[in-house]
């Protein structure tokens, strides 16, 4: 199978794309890939490491505050659209797949106009603007949340879950010693997405002393941009601070509790690995979709949510202590996470791809 795949901007789009690539490789080892990404976002650093042929286009998302900048966005869209048509024609794929981020707009639109088979995957419970636009043109739409199925063309939608979940289950757990952590102590893993969060980081730095000398350990992922400044602070011996963890599911498998944003891929990993969690949704995302993502778990008593505006005083340490000391509550959360799990999500997506390629 020959596949053009596009996803960009954050790990929440890039890692599901990699999971789909890995599944296609597993099923059809002789497959060929072309990954189209942005020229200035995370994918330009991540994708080449996996020896996947990679090309870039210059494209920007719409600016909701500075509307005049969108003239440049529209111009780059049409320029990128022409470039994508040329790339796709030259590669001549069996299918073109979009896995989120504004970079997928010109890629999928070009593929549609060239009459290639197309599929997009929507990770969030509320579809992004780019996927809403593309939903008119694609052949199939795979979604992670059942709640989003009614927000997209019903005849095209299939519920598959997030492909990262299948990768998470198969991943090898990290040895805690790699991060100077103690194997027999409980671990609280704090991560605010692949880019981190300046506001949450400020709160954590201010209140981290409340975790001093606890019997459990804290692994605090700051995000690369904040690490240098935050690492200047002195923390207790039970607190380990790192900038970023590549393939984070390896350490998630050792976590007793995770404190995180509500990015769709992270939630799929939390569900697949049955990790009790305290969710802090980002209030800065379109349509407040992280809050809505997290509600799917909270409503099923599979997670606890603290909104960013409520991060005050000792609320976080109190919640952590209460959870870690309540084995009944932890087990209920794990059981409810199991009920939410979509088994073999990447395989379900592969099956939809194969049907499209086969003309079924």
Keywords:
single chain, 360 residues, alpha/beta, 7-stranded parallel β-sheet, 6-stranded parallel β-sheet, 40% helix
Write the SSE topology.
Elements lengths: L1 E5 L4 H17 L4 E7 L4 H4 L7 E4 L12 H22 L3 E4 L5 H10 L3 E6 L6 H6 L5 E4 L13 E3 L4 H7 L16 E5 L6 H10 L9 E5 L2 H7 L8 E4 L6 H4 L4 E4 L3 H10 L3 E3 L9 H10 L5 E2 L9 H10 L2 H14 L4 H13 L3
Parallel strand pairs: 1-2, 1-4, 2-3, 4-5, 5-6, 6-7, 8-9, 8-11, 9-10, 11-12, 12-13
Helix pairs in contact: 1-14, 3-4, 6-10, 10-13
3D structure, described in words:
By secondary structure, the chain is an alpha/beta fold. 40% of the residues lie in helices and 16% in strands. The chain has helices at residues 11-27, 43-46, 70-91, 104-113, 129-134, 164-170, 198-207, 224-230, 249-252, 264-273, 289-298, 315-324, 327-340, 345-357, and strands at 2-6, 32-38, 54-57, 95-98, 117-122, 140-143, 157-159, 187-191, 217-221, 239-242, 257-260, 277-279, 304-305. Helix 8 (224-230) links the parallel strand 9 and strand 10 (239-242). The chain is globular, with a radius of gyration of 21 Å. The relative contact order is 0.13.
Structural class: alpha/beta
Q: Please provide the count of β strands.
A: 13
Give the overall shape: globular
The helix content is 40-55%
Encode the helix/strand succession as letters: EHEHEHEHEHEEHEHEHEHEHEHEHHH
Strand content: 15-25%
Largest sheet: 7 strands, parallel
User: Strands of the biggest beta sheet: in what spatial order?
Assistant: 3-2-1-4-5-6-7
Q: Please, what is the average pLDDT?
A: 92
Helical stretch tally: 14
Distance between the termini: 16 Å
Low-confidence stretches: none
Radius of gyration: 21 Å
């Amino acid at each position: 199978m020959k596949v053009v795949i596009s996803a960009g901007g954050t790990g929440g789009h890039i890692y599901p794309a990699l999971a789909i690539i890995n599944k296609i490789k597993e099923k059809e080892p002789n497959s060929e890939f072309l990954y189209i990404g942005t020229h200035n976002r995370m994918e330009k650093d991540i994708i080449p490491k996996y020896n996947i042929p990679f090309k870039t286009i210059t494209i920007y998302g719409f600016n909701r505050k500075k509307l005049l900048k969108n003239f440049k966005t529209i111009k780059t869209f049409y320029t990128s659209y022409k470039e994508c048509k040329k790339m796709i024609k030259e590669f001549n794929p069996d299918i073109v797949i979009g896995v989120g981020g504004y970079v997928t707009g010109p890629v999928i639109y070009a593929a549609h106009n060239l009459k290639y088979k197309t599929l997009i995957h929507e990770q969030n419970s509320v579809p992004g603007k780019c996927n809403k636009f593309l939903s008119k043109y694609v052949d199939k739409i795979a979604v992670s949340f059942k709640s989003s199925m009614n927000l997209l063309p019903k005849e095209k939608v299939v519920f598959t879950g997030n492909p990262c979940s299948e990768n998470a289950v198969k991943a090898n757990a990290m040895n805690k010693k790699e991060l100077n952590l103690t194997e027999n102590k409980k671990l609280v893993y704090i991560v605010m997405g692949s880019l981190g969060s300046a506001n949450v980081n400020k709160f954590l730095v201010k209140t981290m002393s409340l975790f001093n000398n606890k019997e459990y350990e804290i692994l605090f992922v700051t995000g690369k941009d904040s690490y240098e400044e935050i690492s200047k602070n002195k923390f207790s011996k039970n607190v380990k601070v790192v900038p970023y963890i590549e393939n984070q599911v390896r350490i998630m498998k050792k976590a007793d509790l995770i404190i995180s944003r509500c990015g769709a891929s992270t939630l799929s990993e939390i569900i697949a690995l049955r990790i009790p969690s305290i969710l802090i949704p980002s209030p800065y995302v379109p349509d407040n979709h992280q809050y809505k993502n997290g509600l799917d778990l909270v409503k099923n008593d599979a997670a606890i949510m603290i909104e960013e505006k409520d991060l005050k005083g000792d609320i976080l340490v109190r919640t952590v202590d209460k959870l870690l000391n309540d084995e009944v509550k932890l087990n209920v959360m794990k059981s409810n996470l199991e009920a939410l799990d979509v088994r073999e999500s990447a395989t379900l997506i592969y099956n939809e791809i194969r049907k499209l390629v086969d003309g079924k």
